[in-house]
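This part of the workshop introduces the protein records we will be handling. An example says more than a description, so a record of this kind follows:
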Amino acid sequence: MLAFIVLGVASIAAAEDPYEKYYEQYPRDEYMIGIGEAPNTGSKYAAKCIAEVLARRDIASQINVRTTEVSVDMMCSSSEASECRDEVISIIETTVDEFLRGSRVVVSAESGAEFIVVIVMPKEGVTRTLDARIDGAVSGARENLGAARGGDKEALERARMQYMMARTYEIERQVLEGVKVNASKALIELQKELDKLRN
């Protein structure tokens, strides 16, 4: 009897996760999946469009929530937390919007009174793009740190912003890959340089 109850609960839990059946075809380590559902009241085209937008927003929210939590905790001190949080969110929203351009619809169907759309976003191209952006932001931050050492007061702020961009990109990449978030050696060195010049 106990085995029947455990199996029943396990099958209900599996049935409640709408993503699981799609991850069988699009593995978690290679794709992010977004699901959108819209009421099919009237125009099928309108319902499909709404469901597509919701599916893309589903992927975006998966990245945004995890990245924002980690980024804000790591980079925003309490004295300037609100402005820093806004900067971090702006960086994340810009990159996520760009990544979603590489997503594609894999399911578009009516299901009773609803229209369902499933979208997949390949992680591989996104992580390559993030790696290139990390390198670019680190290089820019180093150049601006050099200019700040030479007396350019605005360069320090530009270096800080580029550091934030590089760190946020790194966290986004790690969220997509599902690995623990640790700063790379280059970013740790940049943070130390920024701290020295601020003091």
Q: What stands out?
A: Residues 23-198 form one domain.
